[in-house]
Design brief:
Layout: E1 3-5, E2 8-11, E3 15-18, E4 32-35, E5 42-44, E6 51-54
Parallel strand pairs: 2-6
Antiparallel strand pairs: 1-2, 3-4, 5-6
The chain binds zinc ion.
Length: about 60
């Protein structure tokens, strides 16, 4: 469901969580939830700048 690729995490849900553990350049941060704007299609974590890309695999 979630896979990491070139510092971009593709997700199939508009709501994602991040605690920094996915980003090798970060030492981690408190767990937060991010809501992806469906019209934008991606969001950056304000802590570790990890990019999450919404990808609807059914389209
Ligand atoms: Zn983060």
């Amino acid at each position: 469901m979630i896979k990491s690729e070139n510092n971009i995490i593709k997700v199939s849900s508009l709501k994602v969580s991040c605690d920094g553990e996915n980003n090798n350049s970060s030492e981690g941060h408190p767990l937060i939830w991010l809501q992806i704007d469906e019209e934008v299609g991606y969001i950056f974590c304000p802590y570790c700048e990890q990019k999450f890309v919404f990808e609807d695999k059914y389209t």
